[in-house]
Amino acid sequence: MQVRGNFAYLLVSLLGFLLIIAFLDQYPMVGGDQVLMFLIEGTLIVGVWSIARHRIWFRIGIALIAVGAINILMHAIFAHAWANYVNLVVALLFYLFTTFLAFEVLFTGNKIDLNMIMGSICVYILVGITWSILYFFESVIHPGAFKGIVEEAGKQRFSDLLYYSYVTLSTLGYGDITPVTPIARTLAYLEALFGQFYIAILVASFVGMHISVKRSKL
After folding, report:
1. What's this model's pTM, rounded to 2 decimal places?
2. Tell me, what's the pLDDT at 4?
3. For residue 181, is it within any domain?
């Protein structure tokens, strides 16, 4: 199965996801867990449609979309609190799945083009979202795992953890939010390590591709 779109669709979807999360955080009266679940489902659909190249990966993606859709329906009918957690587990699996597919495209390509550059940005965004979900589950299992975040309904806000994830991934380290539990600290420094190595490996890969293309033209 060939790529029907490209990374542009996924990039727009992810950026839209981040912007809408920020809007919902700024104006909480217009949304809630249900909106977050729909946003995650939307990124699932766009991600699978745009970059699932092989039939088996496409089927896995469709299965995750189906589970997410059923979970949203169950939440709408029964309003179970656990539905949001199930949706985040599905999202975590999807983002890992999509990151793998994006890595496959990035590091098996033979030329640098706009699509590949957008793909590298998608991977960076996907990693940040993935880690924010891991932080969220750590904060649910161990309340107060992060200092500097106000808890709501016994859990720390996903938008704050999303912000913390990107601050850590980019090693900005503002210090307004800090991990407290050993697992939270371990997740934080692993994310920082990944962020640094990803940039280094990506640049080296792009330079290698550029040199290879130039030599092939000689």
Report:
1. 0.81
2. 42
3. yes
